[in-house]
Amino acid sequence: MLVLILVLRLFFIQIVERPYLYEKALSQWMRPELKSTRGGIFSRNGVLLLDTERKKVAFISPGWLKDDEKNLLIEGEIIKADDFKQPFIKITEPQKINILEKLEKISPGIVIYNEIERYGEEALATHLIGLAGKSGIEKKYDAILSQSKKNEEIFFDGIGQPIKGSIREKDKNNWGVYLTIDEKIQKKIEEIMDEEVKKGAVVVLDAKTGEILAMASRPNFKQKFVENFLNDPDSPLLNRALMPYIPGSVFKLVVLSAALEEKLSDLNEVFNCPGFIKVGGNIFKCTSYKNGGHGQITLRDALAYSCNVVFIELGRRVGKEKIIEYAKKYGLGEKVLDEIPEEKPGNVPDPKSLYYQDLGNISIGQGKIQITPIQVAKMMLTIVNDGQEINPHVVKKIINKDGEVVFDDRFVDYRGNRVISKENADKIKETLRAACLYGSAVKANLPGESKSAGKTGTAELGDNTTHAWFVGYYPYDQPEYVVSILLERGGSGPSNAAPLFSKIIREITNF
Q: Residue 469: what are its φ and ψ, rounded to 5°?
């Protein structure tokens, strides 16, 4: 009977109470708890996007320093005499670490280890990811990411001496938020923007699924040194991919959609462009004004050459109510991503607030209309998918600290409403193809080929500056990528944004 009791007690201690007793024993050995690590933020391929790095940190236990070692540390200005009153001293300065590394080999009171720094200098998608608990993905999923039980701990023996090589990592950091971002495409987009773009944004979508493969904004900032960017007049912390801008001629796709859907025109209808048009008391000039206008031109070519006169005439025919209705059908004026708190909805005005003379501006994407690069990408995504709304998204899966998958985008249907018919979507794609074959967007083609399709935009700001836009897809026959480009005060869409599309496509298709 006694043997049975002893066996049961041994079982209870070894099996039932083992976790409790283990942690209790460790608590007697451990003194300070080192930096806690949040859950990770990864690419679609499981690559950590934060460039998390480790830096050397020293831990000094003054009670285990010899007098000559103490004097050496004071004379070397590594620590002050008052510091010896503390049970432990943490040193992070690299120059001090270099000296302490030599002493560590002979002193039991010094331990050097590698501490985790969440953000490195080569972090990708900084605007999208944001800052821990404050912005971007880091803010939206803070409840998940801050669940961390991953702490590094340094152990001390029963009499307070640090045990070398005893850093313990409680769990592996392969949990957190996995994005749809492709790290190779993201990196290449950022490299191109660093070379070509002072201010602006680029969004790259998977043309079939709506997954965001890349999203970048410039000027950039470094999360690791964010305090250096807070007062920058160029506002580098803004995610310009989610900020509203006057769209210019990319908005003509809305007017064209409304006209085709309401059967108010057809691609073969012939218009006359004398180079200008009068609406109310306003006179609007076409890009062809200096050449006397486009003359006789079909609706197909009016979109290809981005003729203002034809689209203002078409806008008057469609009417303000229908233009606004189709803008909203495309999702303009509404947030696209639930994942990013900073996203702005833009502005699609109430038709009641528009007067007759406003039709001239609205029809060519000027005036009270403001939309975001991600909204423009979504509009093009809808057209590419035969008029079927596909909602762009950026989160692929979420794994909690216990390794459980709590979200998986494979089980989400991102299709929305039908915006326009397949027949009319095909007609619009025909005009987008024409724009790149012989119209305003010929510079969007890759060298030696003509497989791009898209629309340029040059939005006038009233101070002799313009935003440059391009939104398009590639290749035209079997689309793989939808790309939206905004160059803030970047000049001409045809001259500046369209060539950037060509460069982006050339680079990312090499993968």
A: -125, 150
Residues 98 and 188 in one domain: no
Q: What are phi and psi of 91, to 5 degrees?
A: -120, 130
- pLDDT interval class at 26 (50, 70, 90): very low
Given a cut of 60, whether residue 467 has pLDDT beyond it is yes
**DSSP secondary-structure letter at 175?**
-
3-state SS of the chain: helix, strand, coil percent to 5? 40, 25, 40
- pLDDT, residue 132, reads 93
CA max distance for the chain: 111
Q: Which residues contact 347 (CB under 8 A, 6 or more apart)?
A: 244, 333, 368, 369, 370, 371
Pair 332, 348: CB distance under 8 Å: yes
Per-residue model confidence (pLDDT) at position 237: 97
> 219, 246 in Cβ contact below 8 A?
no
- 421 and 301 share one domain: yes
Length of the chain as a residue count: 511
CA–CA separation, 220 vs 125, rounded Å? 9
Per DSSP (E only), the strands in 156-253 are 168-169, 176-179, 200-206, 212-218
pLDDT tens by residue, 39-56: 999 999 999 999 988 788
Mean pLDDT along residues 238-249: 98
| 333, two tokens | 């004026």
User: In one letter, which amino acid is 174?
Assistant: N
**Total domains present in the chain:** 2
The phi, psi pair for 195, rounded to 5°, reads: -85, -35
Q: How far apart are the C-alpha atoms of 126 and 193, rounded to whole Å?
A: 14
Q: Quick check: is 321 in a domain?
A: yes
Q: Hunting for tokens 């078409």 — which residue is that?
A: 314
In a domain, 175, yes or no: no
Output the six-digit token pair for 56.
């050397």
Bigger pLDDT: 21 vs 399: 399
Contact 218, 240 (CB under 8 A): yes
Across 140-173, b (16+ Cβ under 10 Å) vs e yields: bbbebbeebebebbbbbeeeeebeeeebeeeeeb
Cβ-based neighbours of 54, under 8 Å, separated by 6 or more: 114, 115, 116, 117
pLDDT exceeds cutoff 80 at 437: yes
Quote the CA–CA distance of 361 and 312 in Å, as a whole number. 8
In a domain, 441, yes or no: yes
Percent of the chain at pLDDT > 90 equals: 72
Nearest to 140 by CA among 372, 336, 7, 338: 338
Quick check: 368 and 374 in contact, CB under 8 A? Answer: no
Q: Which letter does DSSP use for residue 414 in this model? A: -
- Could you tell me if residue 15 is inside a domain? no
DSSP 3: H
In degrees and rounded to multiples of 5, residue 113 shows phi and psi of -145, 170
